[in-house]
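Predict the assembly for these two chains.
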Amino acid sequence: MSIFPIARITLLEAARSRLPWLIGLVLLASLAVAGFLQQVALIEVREVQGAIIAALLRACAVFFVVLFVVTSMVREANDKFLELALSQPLPRAGYLLGKFLGFAAVAGVTAVALGLPLLLFASAARVSAWTLSLFGELLIMAAVSLFCVLTLSHVVAALSAVAGFYLLARSIAALQIIARPSEENIALGPRIADWIAHGIALAMPRLDRMTQSAWLTDSGSVVVHDLTSAAAQTAIYVALILAAALFDLYRQEI
Amino acid sequence: MSARPVRDVPMWVRACAAAGLAAQIGWAALQPHPSATAEDLPQPPSPGVARLLALGEPVAAAKLAMLYLQAFDYQAGTRVPYRKLDYDALIGWLDVILGLDPAGQYPLMAAARTYADVPDPVRSRKMLEFVYRAYFADPNRRWPWLAHAAIIAKHELKDLPLALRFADALEKNTTTPSAPLWVRQMVPFILADMGELEQARILIGGLIASGQVRDARDAEMLQRRLEMIEKRLADQSSKPSKPSPQGAPERSLKQP
């Protein structure tokens, strides 16, 4: 048994879980919001529409992928699918990578589907960059969700951990800025707060620099560097989290 | 669920985890350090958008926005602080934050004590005017910051008409007993500094006669001040050709 049937089953599960319907509903809602914004915005109508809808779609995409990964893994655990899969000639790494491959495909379809309406408000090149970055962000979140659900086993605990991780990853740069003491301030307390913020930042992906709405609106900005940076961050973080998830899976008594 | 020992984890998985962690830490360490320079201060959101973004937690959003705002140019450690900060944008932010949390004192404290206290008269005046405007929305809560603004106008900017305008607003609008007497007594002192001795004498005399001053030390200080003004008036009347003094004001107010 190779990893591809596992990935295919995961993709099939997504197709049958009404995720496509949900994505369709979000697309319709985003068009409705675009119409509303067109009525209320006085200037830069396309920029206003693009920025607000992109932010909404980004949040929806992350929410859908995380929810799907967590509920899918918990359902499999409850159905004893993991035990069944591991009774086949398939190593634990094969099972995990197969699942991740399936989730990555779901993330790819979600990113492309939710990136499409942005073509109404920005150029194809900008939307492509935004969509690619969203795909990277979804891959990271899928890997983190997989790790959390394997470790914590329960929906509420796993979703809470993933939500906390996502909020922290999106706000860690702002926290670093706030925690940074002034040059004149030599008190130990602010210095310790600064070191803690830096320590946390070393272990977090910089999601605040990925999938930015500004890429769709800033006419002069160059996104090539941002894109390569996002791709490198995705590759490193996904590798790290999958290795951590594998580590945990190999330690579990199944 | 019971856990198997670490030695049961294949070596390549352990190596991948260690390599991944090292790569992540190395990558994060190589990234530019996030910092907020003065030029990065964006234009503030409109009050409506700010309220929408607050997601029903306007007070928390206001506190967070204030922490965010103070990070700009705060670390510069330059001789002229906030010299690159766009004060119009800054005032817009402070206005939005006050709108989210009208009872909060932080924005006006920062405006009066930090952003107005800069060696740049144009920026300082802008911030003082903001404090003055904001004061009227809640005089009994915001009087400390307008009083501080009056002191900056008088002693730092040496702009006595501006200080008089602030003092006049404080006198007419601050009614809370928690405000010390000197807050409502600033007008005659500034008038005296401006050379309007006759007006100052009438106001101080009226204040003493009204019986509002109950503290013996305050009453004594006012009496001394009245006597000084009367002496100056007497000097002026004996030397009518001498112009009235308009020079640097004395530090006659008790600091808050």
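Chain A has one domain: 3-251. The longest helix of chain A spans residues 45-78.
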